[in-house]
Amino acid sequence: MIQLQNVHKSFGANHVLRGVDVTVEKSKSLVIIGGSGTGKSVTIKCILGLFKADRGKILVDGQDINTADRDAFLSRFGMLFQGGALFDSLTIWQNVAFRLLRSRLKKSQDEARLIAIEKLRRVGLQPDVADKFPAELSGGMQKRVGLARAIAAEPEIIFFDEPTTGLDPIMSCVINDLIREIVVEMGVTAITITHDMSSVRAIADRVAMLHEGKVCWSGSIQDMNQSDDPYLSQFINGRADGPIKAVR
Amino acid sequence: MISTLALIGRNTLSASATLGRLALFILATLRHTIGGPFYIREFWVALVQIGWLSLPVVGLTALFTGGALALQIYAGGARFSAEAVVPSIVAIGMTRELGPVLGGLMVASRVASSIAAEIGTMKVTEQIDALVTLSTNPMKYLTVPRVAATTLAVPFLVAIGDAIGIMGGYLVGISRLGFNEAAYLKNTVDFLEYWDILSGMIKGAVFGFIVALMGCYYGMNSSKGAQGVGTATKSAVVAASVLILAANYVLTEVFFSA
User: What's the pTM value of the predicted model, to 2 decimals?
Assistant: First the structure.
């Protein structure tokens, strides 16, 4: 279970997170929605320790992330980055098996390669991409490789940062279905940040909406569909008019 | 008046902050060098890219510099009938000063820029964040292998550059200035001391450390976007070049002041 309690984070004068409170139950999928610049990425980067929260507590299975052993803590996580964040200088299989070739989970080259190819298959890629470099793949394929890398070490918790950004609607649907399948199949706890409502409906058990650095609404998908919260309603219906100010 | 003072104050604070960050970065690099894991593959890749692939540019620079140096010393020495010193001055000038400084500057332009651009691009495309989430420390994975490889490679590049530079002087000496081949070589060897070569190699190690450190520092601190990477690349080359020249003066004082 992941708990964020009154988490604050500023960058200079820019107070991005202003007291985020959110809980994700074990083996459940939370999707965080909200406009650009509302702190969605900062929230997950704070959980991973990429940014240190200025105030508040972040607990993973009851343990404060600041007191946890960093290596052991990170070995429980997988992350799919918005742009894939694949390492340009490594081949696809080396990217997927990165953790298996280095950290405390270290395996032999042959074993790591076999696992990488199996994970590539799992995300719908043929073994012949294994020896290519990231620059040789399309955006959708890079996302799949990123997904394969995120699940390669069988993590307990996976974060997905805008998994469908930059993809066409069909590829978005494929990636959403893959994420849902993987989350259910592996029984992982997942947090996804997105502003793509088709992703929300495909992936989420629960939804939290961030606005001005705080969770302004949270609930299940059914609650979301029936809610008359003005912020949520404006966002999910994509209206320019409403309480959320849109810059024209 | 107040705005001028404010500008000076802002720049002073900014420079102090940069110096502080740089000092912390150097300490972090040294700290991560001591403890494991050490990424051997990344070290070898850096050694080949930085050492081996810099050889042509360092060699050509040394060759032409040695040749030009021979011509200059001959022309200058002719004013007081000291043309015979050409071989020894070329050898001493190359090994003590021009080999390490010009070699260091050429490596700075080639390597500091490429390290800063590569790491800067990794930063803006979240590859460095990805390293962290994959339980890999970016300082150990990116900075330590590059700094170690450059610090080790540049002294050898300097030594090879010294030899090529002396050869450049020799070629010009015998083909253009009428020196006897055997006499030129004898004069070179007789006047050259081990310390001349060693001091240049020590300078090379320091310059190599500076070059990689500047590339990594500016790459790691690159701001977002193509402009951020461009600025990081430019800053890395400028900072490395200036620091090489400053360090060269300090080392020359330490090694050779009476």
Answer: 0.86
